[in-house]
Design goal:
Number of helices: 13
Shape: elongated
Strand content: 35-45%
Helix content: 10-25%
Radius of gyration: 55 Å
Largest sheet: 5 strands, mixed
Distance between the termini: 120 Å
Structural class: alpha+beta
Strand order of the largest sheet: 61-67-66-63-64
Number of strands: 74
């Protein structure tokens, strides 16, 4: 769309002399803005920082927020006294610190906010200022019990322990006479404290470096006579700075002093590279630290009138401006500049440049802007008399001509007096003055041509000869003198008074043509609206470029060849450059610094590119690198198992039915303004990296196995994360698919084979087991039989006792005895059917029996029943066969005590014996031998079965116990002798 630049340069040269005005303001870099409409809680932002995960933290007048490129997440502690966050800092461990106007200091560790001030307040200290950095922490505290004194605490090294243990034994502390000293930690692990006392500056260096301290003391002495009580101080680039409105800088090595007075307040000083950046109430000021620069006022000024609180440079190199009332301004690059004095949102439809550096650009509503191409200063704005829509082209030769949406305007004398109008010239798209000085005009209805000299007379295009009757967008004259006309339905070529359509391989070339140029290598380049660009050589298409190969868009708005032979392509998806002779393309878009991706026009010179966009004109260096090589950070933000969120750790071991997983992740790249792409891989399913734009992925119904999930963020220039975020996942198989189950099945089969081999042996063992079981059953039946024998034996003895009472005519005792005997009989019947009874039941039975015997013996027998305390506590927990102890006691009465003269004693002791019960029955009767002499008088048919039955029952009971196989170990009858005379009998049973 730009034609005859040589003519324009020659005829507009005088304008440069006329219009070259003194520089007013410099160019401003392109920025994008974050406001309350984006979710920012306040348009006033005080401080900015970035944590080790890549999140940006903002301290605003309405709270602390974390920004991830898309959303703002608020952070607030319930004990905050106010929500106006004035500082945001990051320590060496990556923890974020912040403070509010109430001088409360908080820090965030693993997502949890801690109130650091609370610990100090318990010791009557209040923090008035603080600083944290890679070299430590420093706190200025006040204690109201010590007036006009501050206590400064400093931890001079990286500290990852419990922060609440600070004030014990890990801090260096000094006392000052100033309540509000300024504090700062520099990158060399030095802490500096500046404060005023009696118009003097004192300095404290907590690192105890005497040489460093001497340098600074000397620098401070130089500043001493220049500072004001309201100055703030900072250190950087080996220079000491003091500033409020008067800017002072002292080199600590050479002690050279520079100063400059600003007409407005400086809010902060930040060091970006080797430059000193000043955040002021009236814009951004950059001191490039040139020798002697400050004395000469050699500053760069940006964003005039913008009240800036702070400046921050993120890991990608973006500059963030925290403003008072204007939110956040983010500058991707200071290489992309827009002229001052021109509306940033005003579209620039064409651009041309003179040799002397004046830039002309056409806007809408008949407006033309002129500005200094070297510094961006505005020179002049021209508006043609009739507002006529967009200005799409300008020619300058013997005449000045403007192509507009309302037709052609021209003037022979001056661009500033342009006002003539070519009637019926239509919505002009392009103009061309050919080598024969003919004026070609392309508009929305036709293409026409007339001698340039005809402009001397009144021209009405309704009477001018039409070359083609078609909507024509562009015109070009090639090196053979042919006129190329690009229309909405193809290309027409005019030569020697004849017009013919351009065809390729005898097929119509019917694309919508937007631009045609010819490059130094005699190639014709054709830009289309929907089909990319075509390269022609000798009227033959040799290359086609579109979205399938290299182009970002198939829409081409403008084409331009620079002085190095590179082809520049303006489209609605940014600006691209094709390197000469290669298929290497480089892209510039809003992420690099363009104000808009819709680019209408482009021109270059030896050093600079100018692009006209829908949001104004922008310039940048011709050799500007567009690729963002800073790797984006990637974080896994959520892990869900079967729809339930869980904490994020590196490894997971899950059961087979925990096999539906969702993983959320987030890449952080602020130049891309949140437009991050991703690539993920799930080893165990596939080793292929799969691209996606989604920030989560779901894996339903995963099979058991080992999986490794990895995800990378990819920025706007295809730079991936250096280290993927990774999760390792083990899903265990169900038990029937586990290795141990397979081993079990295998072992079972081997066991089956082995079982078949040992079949005969197993049969024999089974037969032996049957015999053993049979014998055991016989033993049990024998026990029952023996127990049954005991019942009539006891009954017989009891009836003898009753008979004795009756024969002695003791009816009262006989009736009492008979009642107790009936109770005893019922107990015997209840127990006789049981295999085992509790010791508690046995003791109750024995007590009842002993009462009967004591009655039978006229209460002449002293009976002692002794039970161990351990057994006595829980007799219900011990079990024994019924009717084992009673026959022994009965024998003691019948054979030992019955014939005894004098005092009669009977003792029954029940003790715990290992896992058994030991019962010892002792009497002081006549003894065994004498008792046997009495039995000789009995009939031979009588046979005492009591003790024999007990022996048999105990033998069966202990038959299979390894330690109680011998009879003496479980049943023992002992004569008690006194001077070789019988003194009683003792029977011991182990049950």
């Amino acid at each position: 769309m730009i034609a005859n630049l040589k003519r324009i340069s020659a005829f507009l040269g005088f304008l440069c002399v006329f219009l070259w005005l003194p520089e007013a303001v410099s160019q401003d870099p392109v920025y994008w803005q974050l406001t309350d409409e984006d979710g920012l809680p306040s348009m006033t932002v005080y401080d900015i920082n970035q944590d080790s995960f890549g999140f940006v933290w903002l301290g605003t007048s309405n709270g602390l927020v974390r920004y991830d490129g898309k959303e703002f997440k608020p952070f607030i502690h319930p004990e905050q006294k106010d929500n106006e966050i004035v500082t945001v800092r990051k320590d060496a461990e990556g923890r974020i610190w912040f403070s509010n106007l109430s001088n409360q200091v908080f820090f965030i560790d693993n997502g949890v906010i801690h109130n650091f001030s609370e610990t100090l307040e318990q010791n009557q200290f209040k923090i008035t200022s603080y600083d944290v950095g890679i070299s430590g922490y420093v706190f200025n505290c006040q204690n109201d019990t010590v007036p006009d004194t501050s206590f400064i605490y400093y931890l001079p090294e990286k500290y990852s322990g419990n922060l609440f243990e600070f004030f014990q034994d890990k801090l260096i502390a000094v006392s000052t006479e100033e309540r509000n000293p300024a504090l700062e930690i520099d990158s060399n692990k030095f802490v500096y404290n500046f404060f005023h006392i009696a118009s003097q500056i004192k300095f404290a260096d907590f690192s105890h470096s005497s040489q460093k301290g001497k340098d600074f003391l000397a620098a401070m002495q130089i500043l001493q006579s220049h500072i004001s009580p309201y100055s703030f101080y900072t250190f950087g680039n080996n220079r000491l700075y003091s500033c409020v409105q008067t800017y002072h800088s002292v080199d600590i090595n050479t002690l050279s002093h520079e100063s400059f007075v600003f007409p407005y307040k400086v809010n902060n000083i930040v060091f970006v590279g080797d430059d000193c950046w000043l955040a002021t109430q009236a814009g951004l000021v950059v001191d490039h630290m040139y020798p002697g620069g400050v004395e000469n006022g050699d500053f760069d000024y940006f964003f005039e009138g913008l009240d800036i609180n702070n400046i921050f440079k993120d890991r990608e190199g973006n500059i963030w401006l925290a403003t008072d009332g204007n939110g956040i301004w983010v500058i991707p690059s200071f290489s992309f500049l827009q002229p001052a004095g021109i509306d940033k949102d005003e579209p620039a439809y064409f651009i041309t440049k003179t040799k002397n550096g004046t830039i002309f650009t056409g806007h809408k509503k008949g407006k033309i802007s002129l500005f200094n191409g070297l510094n961006g200063a505005s020179l002049k704005n021209i508006e043609i008399p009739v507002r006529s829509g967009r200005i799409l082209n300008m020619l300058a030769g013997n005449y000045f001509l403007l192509a507009t949406d309302n037709g052609i305007y021209y003037s022979k004398d001056s661009l500033f007096s342009i006002g003539n109008f070519l009637k019926n010239s239509g919505a002009a798209k392009d103009m061309l003055i050919d080598s024969n000085d003919s004026l070609w005009i392309a508009n929305s209805r036709f293409t026409t041509m007339l001698p340039l000299s005809d402009l001397e007379t009144s021209v009405d295009f309704s009477s001018v000869k039409t070359i083609i009757s078609s909507r024509t967008n562009c015109l070009h004259e090639d090196n053979m003198g042919r006129i190329w006309m690009g229309t909405s339905s193809g290309i027409f070529i005019y030569r020697d008074g004849k017009t013919y359509p351009f065809q390729y391989k005898e097929q119509p070339f019917t694309y919508n043509i937007q631009e045609i140029i010819e490059t130094k290598d005699s190639s014709i380049w054709i830009g289309t609206q929907y089909n990319g660009i075509f390269q022609l050589k000798n009227d033959t298409i040799v290359k086609i470029y579109n979205k399938d190969n290299h182009l970002n868009s198939n829409t081409c708005n403008d084409l331009h060849e620079d002085s190095y032979g590179n082809l520049w392509i303006a489209s609605n998806s940014g600006l691209q450059v094709k390197k000469m002779g290669t298929d290497q393309f480089q892209t510039y878009n809003i992420y690099d610094g363009l104000p808009s991706n819709e680019v209408f026009s482009v021109i270059t010179d030896e050093q600079t590119v100018w692009a006209g966009t829908s949001k104004g004109i922008v310039s940048f260096p011709l050799n500007q690198e567009s690729l963002n090589l800073v790797v984006p950070l990637i974080n896994i933000t959520r892990f869900s198992i079967m729809g339930q969120d869980t904490s994020i750790v590196g490894e997971y071991e899950l059961s087979y039915n925990q096999n539906t997983l969702r993983i959320d992740y987030q890449g952080l790249g602020y130049r891309a303004q949140g437009n991050i792409r991703y690539e993920y891989q799930m080893l165990g399913i596939s080793d292929i990296w799969i691209p996606t734009s989604s920030e989560n992925i779901t894996f339903p119904g995963l099979s058991p196995g080992n999986y490794t999930f990895s995800v990378k963020a990819v920025n706007e220039d295809d730079t991936p994360s250096l280290t993927p975020a990774t999760l390792r996942i083990l899903i265990n198989p169900p038990w029937w698919k586990t290795w141990w189950f397979r081993v079990f099945i295998t072992a079972s089969l081997l066991l089956l084979i082995w079982s078949a081999y040992r079949y005969r042996l197993m049969i024999i063992r089974r037969q032996e087991n049957l015999k053993r079981e049979f014998q055991q059953k016989v033993n049990e039946l024998s026990m029952q039989a023996l127990q049954t024998q005991m019942n009539p034996h006891f009954i017989f003895n009891s009836l003898n006792a009753i008979q004795h009472f009756l024969t002695t005519n003791d009816q009262e005792n006989a009736m009492f005895y008979l009642s107790k005997f009936a109770h005893l009989i019922r107990t015997v019947f209840e127990q006789s059917g049981k295999k085992m009874i509790s010791l508690e039941e046995e003791l109750e039975f024995l007590k009842l029996y002993l009462k009967l015997e004591d009655l039978r013996f006229n209460n002449k027998v002293k009976i002692n029943l002794i039970v161990d305390e351990e057994i006595k506590q829980t007799p219900e927990d011990y079990y024994l066969p019924p009717l084992l102890i009673q026959p022994v006691i009965e024998n003691a009465f019948k054979h030992g005590l019955f014939h005894k003269k004098g005092e009669k004693d009977l003792t029954i002791e029940i003790k715990k014996h290992s896992n058994f019960i030991k019962c010892i029955v002792t009497d002081n009767g006549i003894g065994i031998k004498k008792a046997q002499s009495y039995l000789k008088w009995k009939s031979k048919e009588h046979k005492s079965a009591g003790l024999y039955t007990i022996r048999e029952r105990l033998a069966i009971h202990h038959k299979y116990h390894p330690t109680l196989k011998e009879e003496e170990s479980y049943f023992k009858v002992t004569d008690i002798m006194n001077d070789s005379q019988p003194a009683g009998t003792q029977v011991t049973l182990v049950i």
